[in-house]
Amino acid sequence: MLDPGVAAPDISGANINPKAPGTTFSLAALSGRVIVVIFFAWWCPHCGNELKFLQKLWKKYQKQDVVFVAVHTENDDDHARQYGYADALSAAREKLIASGVRFPGIQDDSADTIFCHYDGPGFGWPQVYIIDKDHDVHSAVYGEESESATENRILDAFTSRDPIDLEMVIDMSDSMNNSASAGVSKLAVMKQAAKMVVDFSHAHGLTSDRMGLVWFTDDVSRYPTGNTLLPVMANANGLRNRIDAKHTGMCTALGAGLQTAFDVLGSSTRNRFAILLTDGMQDVDPMVHSVGGHFEIIDAPAEYHCSRTCPGVGPRPGVNITSYNTPVHTIGVGVTATYSPLLNDIAAATDGTYLATVDPVNDLALLYFVEVCACLAGGSPAIISHAAGTFRPEQCKSTHRFFLNRTIRKFTAILSWQKLGAGNLIFWLRAPDGTVVGLHNRIKYYDTYVMATVPLPVEQDGRELPRSGEWVMIVRGSIGSSVPYQVLVIGEDTGTHFEVVHPHRMYEAGDVLPLRIRLKEGRRFLAEPADIVLQKKSLREPLTELLARYPFQPALKKAKKGECEKIPGTVQLEPKLRALEADPRFAEQLGLNVITQSLREGTLRCTIDQKGITLPVTLTEPGVHTYRIEVRFDTEKNGPISRVTLVSVYVGPGAADPERSVVTMIPTGSGKTNGLMVIATPKNPAGQLIGPGRSAGIGLRIGKETPEHSIEDLLDGTYRITIGPGLAGSGKNRTVTLMFKDKIFWKGKMPTVS
After folding, report:
1. pTM greater than 0.70 (yes/no)
2. Rounded to 10 degrees, what is the CA torsion of 497, 498, 503, 504?
């Protein structure tokens, strides 16, 4: 049978069905239409059953650009005469009439030419192909299936959304080899999540959806080569294998990766997107720079980390990245949160979304699927449920419950785990009435995950299982050691639309983030939640405090005269963060603090009106804030509606507080070589460190003048400001003023310099 995404061979010939209009049929003449093809034999009872419900579907969809055709492939006249027919063609006509078919039929020739073009003879009858509007094979099934399953496949091909082009832009720098947790690297977690996205897109996408891969490290590479993208349906194996085979380099050429994605997507006339993942700062050119209030990708000499630029990626100075008309959804990974302001700004500038996690083992797949659902748009597909846990060798099973509403027409259940030893996990599903669902050929097995797409309703043992209500996933396995795992359920539901929105602006510590939840059922906003659960994950200790305590020797570089000088602290911050992340002595401090609040339990407050629900969340400390939001509504018409999503915001430290900040002034030199050194540790009103990494925001004045000075970030929240030599007027008792983001946080008299 032909694989999805393959161009459908033509089907044409004289119409043999006396009950159907028209004398001929030609698939090639039906551009822009969805085609349903059944290959049948007159003597096949399963073919008769299939023809009968295809007639029902023809009656339902014939006015919606869906065309049906039956192709008869039996040519043995002697066989037909044994059963009283004049020949095989007469038997075929009688089969169509007896089944009530009112759509065209075609007789294949004696060599079964049409059937062979579809690779059909080796599989038997019936075979039903769904061909999409671009005349590519969308799906194919051998054997009798339920009417609802076939209708789901028709709806998949006939969906109202347009096909998309998606570039996965992935950081492959050396820091991706660092541990995410539980002995698993960020690289392994990323590869697993990216492969799951490919396979989900294969199961849930359109035949004509396309995807490409871009990797950036010291240089940039892409798959496939050239400015092309691949149809996911036909190339899922190739995409998955390329993700698996890729290895890391050293540096982070973020601008090169993003420019490559823009170049490939630039020729696309479809809805196009990029999903950009990184775990650190860009440190090799081309880079993304803020220029006059917007962002450009600019090539410049690579000064500190990597000595070479990325070949084949030309600079685009003066080009605003918004001119590429490509939303960039960004994902930040790990505790090295120096990427956050840039990723947040890139997403905001291009109408994408920004997400981040300090717990990639349990969150990264969820982050990816939130972004993918945003690309597919329209509120469908939507994430129904997400759970994470640890499966232990002594366990018999683990149970997870999720809720499906009536307008969901299919869902994909995914179980993934981290490979820490021998053994694998598996799952099965129970419907709301307790029936174990026969997954059979619906479930697919991969190295570290399994997934099953289930069309609804499920027909089993001659009856239709209830679709709405509480479903159960039962996880079992035979493993040698404890493994982290997670469960995702994603549903296709055009009857509802779920979103969480918030003002896109720069937040500071102490601000209130208003999360606005909207769940729309048809034209009506739902305003009576059964429960809302808000979960926040953060480090047990603020990252700035950990950096202040972490010992780190700044690197040196060779100067032109052979002497060594220190590399600026702004450049050294990223290596210090990566060293901290990889240091086993700080593993406990880098552990997570999880806070969960629930509306039903009375620990979460909100305001509700007729168009949404607002959660006022106080942002208590600087850094990355990521919130997992799970909502459930119980509706009489549609049953229980459950949705899950994530929201991330980057929070600045706020203003430096004069009473909390610590400043010391030290006179240096004497006479004409006199100068001044200022040691400043700015803190916000909550006593939290403003730095490191914020030297650009610090300013200094002496009296009304701004003397020449240098600022060194000591990477522990303290900044060394050096003024001079040659400070004159030391006896004039002038005032030294320190500012953070142009706001004064300290004033003092300049000490006497001898």
Report:
1. yes
2. -90
